[in-house]
Amino acid sequence: MAGPAPPAPKLFWHDGIMPDDPVDKFLDEQKQLETHRHDLIKEVLRQKEAAIKAFDDKLAKLGYDGSEAAKRSHHKHDDDKKPA
């Protein structure tokens, strides 16, 4: 016979979660990374919006209002083609 099994380690639970559980640590880290990622995305979008507004303001100072389509195009029109 091998003798009695060693006693199970004592776990101290707080709110139903073991504090040193590696899975919980991993999930907490992932949650923090996801939150940080969302914060970074919000910041990039805010910077993008500010850059677009600044660019639009510069265009407005130059008199461009964006109501007309671009005059130049890489597409050929039938009246631009030379007869063969």
Characterization of the model:
Helices cover 48% and strands 0% of the residues. With 84 residues, it is an all-alpha fold. The chain has a domain at 20-60. The protein is elongated, with a radius of gyration of 32 Å. The protein starts with 21 loop residues before the first helix and ends in a 23-residue tail after the last helix.
Helix content percent band? 40-55%
Q: What's the average pLDDT?
A: 80
Figure out the total of helices: 1
End-to-end gap: 104 Å
Residue fraction in strands: under 5%
Throw out a few tags for this protein.
1 helix, 84 residues, mainly alpha, 0% strand
Structure described in brief:
48% of the residues lie in helices and 0% in strands. By secondary structure, it is mainly α.
Map the helices and strands.
Layout: H1 22-61
